Amino acid sequence: MNSIEAFNPAILTNLGFSPEQPINDKYSFVAELKMALDKISQTQIEASKQARAFEMGEPNISLNEVMVSMQKSSVSLQFGVQVRNKLVAAYQEIMNMNV
């Protein structure tokens, strides 16, 4: 399973934000993006923990719960990748505009 690491502050720097300077606007685009990436990462971590617990034979973890959480994790990652692709395409389209 692919996983994403913690949100890279270098991305914020490239967008014109300083990593040392907290984002005060809780509804800003960058804050929403960070929350979405953190949620995807948390979903993957939880799925991995459930899979590991099932492999270790914990009695309160069933196979169907593990499979559902793994599928949720996979779908959320695929959704995140598609959103990123759309953002990159929009950025490229804006950069190709004649001014």
Automatic annotation (TrEMBL):
Provide the Gene Ontology terms for cellular component. Answer: bacterial-type flagellum basal body
Which InterPro entries would you find in this protein's record? Answer: FliE
Keywords, in A-Z order: Bacterial flagellum, Cell projection, Cilium, Flagellum
An example of a Gene Ontology BP annotation on this entry?
A: bacterial-type flagellum-dependent cell motility
UniProt-recorded Gene Ontology molecular function terms = cytoskeletal motor activity; structural molecule activity
List the Pfam families: FliE
Spell out the subcellular localization from the entry.
Bacterial flagellum basal body
Q: Answer whether the UniProt record assigns the keyword Flavoprotein to this protein.
A: no
Please give the PANTHER family that the UniProt record associates with this protein. Answer: FLAGELLAR HOOK-BASAL BODY COMPLEX PROTEIN FLIE, PTHR34653
Q: Return the NCBIfam families for the record.
A: fliE
Q: Family assignment?
A: Belongs to the FliE family.
Annotated protein name in UniProt: Flagellar hook-basal body complex protein FliE
Naturally occurring in which organism (per UniProt): Gilliamella apicola
Gene, per the UniProt record: fliE
